[in-house]
Predict the structure of Archaemetzincin-2-like.
Amino acid sequence: MMQDKNTKYVVGSLKKFDNVTQKFYQLSSGYLQGSPPSLDQGNNLFTPMLPLAHPIHRQTYSQWKYSMFVNTLFRRKRGRNLYLLPIGPFPADITETEVAGLRLWDFLKGFAAAFFYGLDVHVLPEISLENIDCTKRVHKNTNQKQVLVGDLFPYLQKMCPPDGYSVVGISWTDLYPSEELNFVLGEASFVQHSAVISFGQFEPKLYKDGLRVRECGSEGEDERAIMLLKLTKSLCHESCHLMGLSHCVFFQCLMNESSSMEQAFKQPLFLCPVCLRKLQKMCKFDIRERYHMLREMLIKCCQAVESQYFADSAEWLDRCLSFLD
Ligand SMILES: [Zn+2]
Ligand SMILES: [Zn+2]
């Protein structure tokens, strides 16, 4: 199959892949053409971000590969294990909560193992925030405690077992990125090999004078669905940052930047072809096998909670799989 210039620019050479995989990655050519491929070509699986971003904001596959190469030179931890570290204390109804018959942490582990198919994912024993030396504040809109997220990275880096690639903390307490900013659902440090996500219970935008005035998420999603959505989405997004992926400006994609939870909920749970190519190089999966694994996890989500978002995501995976058949 002949590869056009556009796809070579964003996803690199596809020579070593089978025809169907090549065809799938070729869908990335819709980006520079500024229009989605016609229906029969790609079933509109990916929507380009328009107008086109300045090239300086783009991280193409070859740029990603170069930054990974440099990072590897300085990296001591080179294992293929991704560790999740619950940072409590948590209320009992959270630690005892079950999703599809699994403890919440085990469910998240399963989800990450499907998303990063090829890496091993483990859950470390829960620790308490009180044992970590970090800056805290009480946000004036919500009257709730927040933790300065960057303060957690050195601690997490130390907690990463020798066979680990990275650690992702899962914090019960909300996070903030810097003094002037309100809130962040999660953040990652590629250099410190660690990330933190939170349950994001108290986004200040949803509050006024200490009272919740708006709900987050789209209509019809119940609280449990919103919790799962926040956790799965931020876990996968931040972990991708740990694997060197920058924010995506090519397509609507899990790696798009978002400035609020509302915006995050509008973005897909999945990667565009450009970001997928990077993750595939990192995890070394077959894209079909990975989609099958993810589909299984999404079906579990749909059985556990009522959520249009998860249902739409499962339907999108079905369309991808039929394209790849
Ligand atoms: Zn991000
Ligand atoms: Zn992307």
